[in-house]
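FORM 7B: Structural annotation worksheet

SECTION A. Query
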Amino acid sequence: MNDAQFKDLVRSWKDFPTKGISFKDINPLLSTPDSLNYLDEKLYKMCTNVQMNKIAAIESRGFIIGSLLAKSLNKGLILIRKEGKLPGPIIKEPYDIEYGTRIMEIQNDAILDGEKILIVDDLLATGGSAIAAASLVEKLGGTVVGFVFIICLNYLEGMNKLRNHGYNANCILEYY
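SECTION B. Predicted structure
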């Protein structure tokens, strides 16, 4: 498999989840051993030299990427979830998305002070969820060492938002 074949697997769904949105569907990237192995290899190569203690994955498709990377890199995995999904003491962060407002949560003991955290998700659009995840990590005393995404929708300026906040990010597939 090569980059072009991998990108060809991504499906676009017009007007999902709301009118005017073109949803990028990564499910086909996960559906065969060849594409899943290709994804795993690409992620590993992007992150093998990043100094980190743990990986923080954003719900829900970020959990897939985070699990692959955590196993490949022998790191722990932290789950950043939508509101009301985590037990125990948590902290919250509101954020805007391209079609509404949401709240993210993380357990307040998930990160030790000074730990270096790589944040992963399936897709970067406007950057709202990524910035919220970084805020949660930093509120717990962690340092964000970067972001990794399968897809970046560069026309929505999320990458610029991350850079403006001083963060580095890498994407496997980019759409302009």
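SECTION C. Observations
The mean pLDDT is 95. Residues 46 and 170 are 7 Å apart (CA to CA).

SECTION D. Sign-off
Analyst initials: ____
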